[in-house]
Amino acid sequence: KVELAESLQEKLARAEAALRRERAASEEAQSASEETLRKLEENSRKVLNDCRALQSTVSELEMERDTFANLQMGLEEDRSSLQQRVRMLEEQRAELEDARQELADENHRLTRQHSHALYSTEEQCSA
Description:
Elements: H1 2-126
């Protein structure tokens, strides 16, 4: 009986030692899990803040894009208007060039007519 009691006490002592080791390992694993969880939460907050910053940047870029699109549309309208103005001025220049040529031709004709009249007058005076 004494041997049986001693054997049971040894088994109990071994079981209690194993239980203490298991508890220590469990506590260590729980501490490691909690630390991992804290790191994950911290990383999640950083990622969330990064996402918010990116959303803000995207919103700003979209506003800039819209602003530039509006500016581009205005510039296209201005360009179209200026092209129309250039065409009109080129037409006016062509008309003025035609009128200048007509005046030059008329001037040349009148100069020849005047020279001819002077020549005729000189001949009549000489005769």
